[in-house]
Design a protein that fits this description.
homodimer, about 280 residues, mainly alpha, about 0% strand
Chain lengths: ~280, ~280
């Protein structure tokens, strides 16, 4: 097919347009995948922190009262942080990853637009060839030549029109792309900032929790656990003191029923087995 | 071996002490492992973000000037955040994980202390048996009995002394444990907060970067890339415009050498291949 200088210029323009479209497809695709991986890894951090929360809870159950209390409060703040991390991961999916995925459809539509324009130009080219052949075959047949010229003119107008439409549609694509990218990256930032701000708040509370431990009070409790009195009261005992130091006295009948009651209260809690956590 | 009521009481106390030691070993061990996993997963988040930084850089090289600029600045703030994430991971190791690991040695020493005390009590028990046997064998030999009683007395004093030492050492252990736990968890919080605070600062800058895009300026550049003028100047061209729409004109000699110069300047940059990033 022959090509006028104009046609070649338009072909080059189309080539550049196709490159722009492929470029967006490639880079938005990469960023989308990477952000998805970023989200998945953030979820894993959340999982490990949740595990820590559980472990702190289990450990705190074995501890003296004020340490137990401090650890439980600490763990609860840490748990809330993970709730916000969960929200971060979900919002990332909705506001950042999904919109980027949406560019697959946009790219597809732009390629169809390019195709439409290329078809129109191909028809123009064919008409041009047709006119040439007609001129060579029937150089004196003015009517046939006139018809071919007229067909070419229509095809050229169509090609010109679709070319202009493509330029407009591509300008719209570029504008929309800039706005979408601005929004997507902005939203990424605000999702992140929202999480970081909440984390700061809750970590501040966690800090205060862990500093609320009353060492002296707990040491008293510990000391008395090493020296159980005649009456083993719940307030003075720690978890795990399943057997009292008073077995011999029971055999002699002293305070037998009272001690048996208190032994039941002191029975150590079963510590739940952790699901084995394989290292990711 | 026979056991006095006192001896049985001390045995129970020792049992509780051993339980406390094992409890710390178990729970500190679990928390240490979980925090190590938390650190590793945080490092993976950093890696994904670093990958995003690179991809933004590569994509920005293909874009119109103000979008390119905005993306590069955005990426540089994101990169700094990952530097702080790296610091977070390193400090977690030093201030939280290592101290928890250190409890292995503490636990070992406490178990040795318990052993020492148990050995002393075993010796006391043996002396008691010895005395009993001596009394049965030589009931009238006051001298031998007196010797045995004296040996028992020494062993009892020794057992009493080591028991007291064990109680003191365990109280010190409990006190130190509370302080260490307070410090470890505090440091965990401050390491985290330090990172979150920096992230907030840098994300604020990133937000401003992405909002600095000048859409209209960039659209002008884009439009002129679709309609290259007679002179293809670098300012008006985009990456990837390796061939100009002016091939035909060159053949006719117009502005040939000038265009060839500018074509070299516009040669598209090679985009580096990304190391294939397998999904962790």
């Amino acid at each position: 097919m022959s090509r006028t200088p104009d046609a070649r210029m338009r072909d080059n323009q189309t080539k550049r347009i196709q490159e722009r479209i492929s470029n967006v497809e490639k880079h938005f695709g990469k960023m989308c995948q990477t952000l998805a991986a970023y989200g998945r890894n953030s979820a894993r951090v959340r999982d490990k922190a949740d595990l820590l929360v559980r472990e702190l809870g289990q450990y705190s159950d074995t501890e003296t009262p004020s340490l137990k209390n401090a650890l439980k409060h600490f763990a609860s703040h840490l748990a809330k942080i993970q709730d916000y991390r969960q929200a971060q991961v979900e919002r990332l999916e909705v506001k950042v990853i999904e919109p980027l995925k949406g560019y697959n459809a946009v790219v597809r539509r732009k390629r169809e637009d390019v195709k439409t324009t290329q078809s129109a130009r191909t028809r123009e080219s064919k008409q041009m060839d047709q006119l040439e052949r007609t001129r060579q075959k029937n150089p004196s047949d003015r009517q046939v030549i006139s018809q071919a010229e007229s067909d070419l003119q229509r095809a050229t107008m169509d090609a010109t029109r679709t070319t202009r439409q493509l330029e407009e549609t591509m300008e719209e694509f570029e504008k929309q792309k800039m706005r979408d990218l601005k929004k997507i990256l902005s939203d990424f930032v605000t999702v992140e900032m929202s999480f970081h701000a909440k984390a700061l708040e809750l970590y501040t509370l966690a800090y205060h929790s862990i500093h609320s431990v009353e060492e002296e009070e707990d040491l008293k409790v510990f000391r008395s656990s090493l020296h159980p009195p005649d009456y083993l009261t719940p307030a003075n005992s720690l978890e795990g003191t399943a057997s009292t130091p008073f077995q011999q006295q029971r055999a002699s009948g002293r305070q037998a029923s009272r001690e048996e009651e208190e032994e039941d209260e002191d029975e150590s809690e079963e510590e739940e087995d952790e699901d084995s956590e394989e290292e990711s």
